[in-house]
């Protein structure tokens, strides 16, 4: 299959490109920089130069493809509206090309806020509806286009897609711990996060593209619920730091913006995804990665 991948040089995207190429797919990756383009070419992928704001480029990439994997996002945590508007415009553009084609469209989404008081499941609809909502409401937008002849598939990634070299949420929490000299958790630390290793997330992307039916919600969650206190204790063990509780009112001051998320419960199951795709995660757990030194780079200059 000829596959167009946005975010092809990102954390999940680069692993997904490797997975797709290894399975025999022809990949064209969107690349903003010379370095990203060179890395993709070295792997054997084709390159389309551009970024998420280049709607004409996105249109060309989708027109030439038999399937699209959309993993790019601006991730502007200071100005989330900027990210949300760009995401909405990009997805509208891609869907405009794919409508009526029955081609697969795998869209990156998240597991946050799916359910209250229990782990989220694939049956839970995303609460983000409309262009002003998180991620521009693009999961619901894409799934609505199933009625327009698009094989839309929502790939909901755990809040931590972990592994050596990760610069995501866990890296920010590690950096805060090294900066503060203590490894903190919020409140009593009983809230929990789903987690998945990068290699398992990439395999889910490929399987979803190849096999998932239109309208599927896939959960990239190898672990349902890793308590945030256990995360803090693993960081403390890895960096020889004391572990402390942080008052919820002080979370953002202590951790930075990531404190808002570290205080949330973002747990989720993946039973239906595993059954649908035969997806069986094999990577190390989040705590194993932390203790083994996968985050030694995070906050190293603190």
Structure description:
With 302 residues, this protein is an alpha/beta fold. The protein has 2 domains: 2-159 and 197-221, Rossmann fold (3-Layer(aba) Sandwich), CATH 3.40.50; 165-195 and 224-292, UDP-galactose 4-epimerase, domain 1, CATH 3.90.25. Helices cover 39% and strands 20% of the residues. It contains 12 helices and 12 strands. The strands form 3 sheets. Strands 3-2-1-4-5-6-10 form a 7-stranded parallel β-sheet, sandwiched between helices. A 3-stranded mixed β-sheet has the order 7-9-11. Strand 2, helix 2 and strand 3 form a beta-alpha-beta unit. It starts with a strand and ends in a 10-residue tail after the last helix.
Find the count of extended strands (DSSP E, 2+ residues): 12
CATH architecture of the largest domain: 3-Layer(aba) Sandwich
Order of helices and strands: EHEHEHEHEHEEHEEHEEHEHHHH
Strand order of the largest sheet: 3-2-1-4-5-6-10
Mean pLDDT: 95
**Low-confidence spans:** none
Query: At the fourth CATH level, what is the homologous superfamily of the largest domain?
Result: NAD(P)-binding Rossmann-like Domain
What Rg do the Cα atoms give?
Answer: 19 Å
The CATH class of the largest domain, by name, is Alpha Beta
What form results from the Cα inertia axes? globular
Distance from N terminus to C terminus (CA atoms, Å) equals: 45 Å
What number of domains? 2
**CATH topology title of the largest domain:** Rossmann fold
Proportion of residues in β-strands: 15-25%
**How large is the count of helical segments?**
12
Helix percentage range: 25-40%
Largest sheet: 7 strands, parallel
> Helix/strand-derived class?
alpha/beta
């Amino acid at each position: 299959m000829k596959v167009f991948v946005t975010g092809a040089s990102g954390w999940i995207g680069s692993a997904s490109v490797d997975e797709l190429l290894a399975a025999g797919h022809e990949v064209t990756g969107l690349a903003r920089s010379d370095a990203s383009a060179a890395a993709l070419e070295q792997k054997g992928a084709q390159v389309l130069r551009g970024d998420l704001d280049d709607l004409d480029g996105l249109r060309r990439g989708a027109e030439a493809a038999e399937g699209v994997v959309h993993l790019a996002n601006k991730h502007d945590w200071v100005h989330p509206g900027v990210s949300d508007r760009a995401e909405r415009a990009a997805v509208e553009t891609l869907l405009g090309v794919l409508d009526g084609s029955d081609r697969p469209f795998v869209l990156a989404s998240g597991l946050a806020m799916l359910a209250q008081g229990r782990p989220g499941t694939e049956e839970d609809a995303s609460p983000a509806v409309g262009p002003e909502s998180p991620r521009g409401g693009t999961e619901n937008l894409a799934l609505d286009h199933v009625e327009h002849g698009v094989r839309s598939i929502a790939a909901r990634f755990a809040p931590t897609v972990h592994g050596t070299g990760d610069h995501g949420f866990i890296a920010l929490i590690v950096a805060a711990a090294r900066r503060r000299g203590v490894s903190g958790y919020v409140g009593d630390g009983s809230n929990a996060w789903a987690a998945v290793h990068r290699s398992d997330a990439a395999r889910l992307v490929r399987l979803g593209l190849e096999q998932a039916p239109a309208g599927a919600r896939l959960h990239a969650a190898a672990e349902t619920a890793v308590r945030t206190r256990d995360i803090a204790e693993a960081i403390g063990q890895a960096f020889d730091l004391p572990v402390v509780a942080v008052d919820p009112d002080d979370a953002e001051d202590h951790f930075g913006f990531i404190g808002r998320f570290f205080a949330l419960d973002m747990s989720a199951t993946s039973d239906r995804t595993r059954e649908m795709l035969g997806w069986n995660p094999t990577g190390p757990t989040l705590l194993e990665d932390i203790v083994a030194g996968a985050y030694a780079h995070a906050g190293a200059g603190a």
